Amino acid sequence: xxxxxxxxxxxxxxxxxxxxxxxxxxxxxxxxxxxxxxxxxxxxxxxxxxxxxxxxxxxxxxxxxxxxxxxxxxxxxxxxxxxxxxxxxxxxxxxxxxxxxxxxxxxxxxxxxxxxxxxxxxxxxxxxxxxxxxxxxxxxxxxxxxxxxxxxxxxxxxxxxxxxxxxxxxxxxxxxxxxxxxxxxxxxxxxxxxxxxxxxxxxxxxxxxxxxxxxxxxxxxxxxxxxxxxxxxxxxxxxxxxxxxxxxxxxxxxxxxxxxxxxxxxxxxxxxxxxxxxxxxxxxxxxxxxxxxxxxxxxxxxxxxxxxxxxxxxxxxxxxxxxxxxxxxxxxxxxxxxxxxxxxxxxxxxxxxxxxxxxxxxxxxxxxxxxxxxxxxxxxxxxxxxxxxxxxxxxxxxxxxxxxxxxxxxxxxxxxxxxxxxxxxxxxxxxxxxxxxxxxxxxxxxxxxxxxxxxxxxxxxxxxxxxxxxxxxxxxxxxxxxxxxxxxxxxxxxxxxxxxxxxxxxxxxxxxxxxxxxxxxxxxxxxxxxxxxxxxxxxxxxxxxxxxxxxxxxxxxxxxxxxxxxxxxxxxxxxxxxxxxxxxxxxxxxxxxxxxxxxxxxxxx
Length: 605
Fold this sequence. Notes:
Blueprint: H1 23-43, H2 54-87, H3 92-102, H4 105-120, H5 124-133, H6 135-138, H7 141-150, H8 157-168, H9 171-184, E1 187-191, E2 194-198, H10 210-225, H11 228-249, H12 256-261, H13 266-279, H14 283-293, H15 318-332, H16 334-345, E3 349-350, E4 362-366, E5 371-375, H17 382-401, H18 413-434, H19 438-473, H20 480-494, H21 508-511, H22 525-544, H23 549-559, H24 565-573, H25 580-602
Parallel strand pairs: 3-5
Antiparallel strand pairs: 1-2, 4-5
C-alpha cells in the first residue's frame, strides 16, 4: 500500500469487554457462570404450558426476560473470545477460555431444553392463547413456536443433559481440536527466492504467475496431508456423534436436523439443487473461455481464482476497496453506505495479512453492544474485496434487526447467507456498470462468475461429499483415503468433470473448516441457497425499478427473524421456493453474465 493508510486494518476489541489477560475479564466470566448455573437450576422447575394459566404465563415471561439478558452476555463473551482466538490462533490463554466457555454448554442446553420441553405439551390453540394472554410472550410468539418445533430434536430430558455434558469433551472438543491443528499448520512456500512458512490463510492461489499458483497449491496439499489422520478422526467423530443422536431421535436421515435448523422444507432444498443441476452447465462456457484467456487447455484447481491477463494487473489496496464498497452500498441506499463506513471507520474489522491468524473469514455479533466484528485476511485482490463486502452484508443484517427482541434477531444460516451475498451482488453490479473498458469488465465478470462456480459447483461438491460421507459413516468410520476418494468423486460430479485430470483437490475435506463446525451440521447448502436467493432478489430489484425496493429489502431482513424460510420469501417477494420459477430467475442472471463474459473474451477490442 502506498502512502499513509486511511483505514485501520485491525479491529477494536478493547471497547467491547476487558482484555482476557486481566482480572476484570476473569471476574466477568465467573459472574456469568454463576448466573448461568442459577438460571439453569431455576429452569428445572419451569412449568409445562399444557395448561397456560395466568400465573404460569407470568412465570414464563419473567424467566424468558432473564434468559434474554443472560443470552446477550453469553453471546458477547463467546464472540469476544472467538475474535481474540481467531486473530492469535496459537495463544494458549484464548484457547483455554474457548474450552471453558464450551464447558458451559450443558447449562445452556438445560435452559433451551426447559423451554422446548415446556412448550412440547402445548397445542396450537394453547400456544396461541399463551401469546395472546401475555404481551411479553406475544412479542416473541414466532420464537416460541420455533422452539416447540425444535423440541423434536431433543432426547428425553435426562438423556439430553447427559449428551450435552459429554459433548464438551466429545463433539465440540473435536471441533476445537481441528481449530488448533489448522491454526498451527504452516505451509512452506517460496517467496522472492526464500523458503518461508505461512499460515493457510496467507497462501493464495491468485498469482498471475502459474508456477507460483502450482507451487503454492502442491505445498498446501503436502501440508494438509500431514494432518489427514488427525482431521480424519475429527470429522468421523463429529459425524458419528450426530448420527447416533439422529438414530435415537428416529429422524428420517442426516438432512432432517439441518433442515429444521434452517427453518426450511425438504421440497425447497430439492427444488434448489434440481435447478442448479439442470442449469449449471452454462458455467462450462465461462470455465472454457477463462482457460483460453490463461493459455490453458483446461483449468486446474489452482487456476480457479487466477487473475485474467490485463494491462493493469495491480492489486487493489484495502483503502481503495473500502471506498468502493462504501460508494456502491450508498448508491443502493444511503443507510447501507453509512453503515459500511461505520464498520470501517469505527474499526469493527480485522483484515491484516500476518502470520498466526486462523484461516477463513466471519462476522460475529455482540448483541449486548449492538455491534458486530468482522474477521478475514485481506490480500489485495478483487476476491478479498468481495469477501469484505460479504461480511459487511452480514453485519448490516444484524444492524437492521438490533431493535427487535433478542430471540427475534436469530435467523437461520441460509437466510444469513442471503444478506451477505446480496451485498456482494450490489458491489459487483455497481462496479460492472461503471466499468470503463473490456479488460475491467472482464475482470469484474470473472470475479462474479468465479463466485458462481464456488456456489454452484464448489458448494455442491461439499454437499455431495457430506451426503455420501454420512451415508457411509452409518456403517463405521471412514478412512482418510476413502474420504479423499469421496472428495474427488464429488468434485468431478459437481464440476461436470470440467477441470484438468490432475486438477482435483483430494485434501479439500481436510482444509475446509466448514466440515468441522460442531455447532451446526451441513454448513454448506446455506451458501448456495443464499447466493441464489440474493441473485433472485437483485433481479426483482432491477426489474421493479422502484425507489421503494430498499425498504422492501429491509422488511425482508426483519422477516428473517420471525418467519420460516418459505414464508419470509413468500411474504416479502411473492415467490414459492418449492417451485423452480424463482431459482431459474436467479440462474438466468448467471447465464446472462456468462454470455457477457464469453462475448468479451472472444472480442479483440
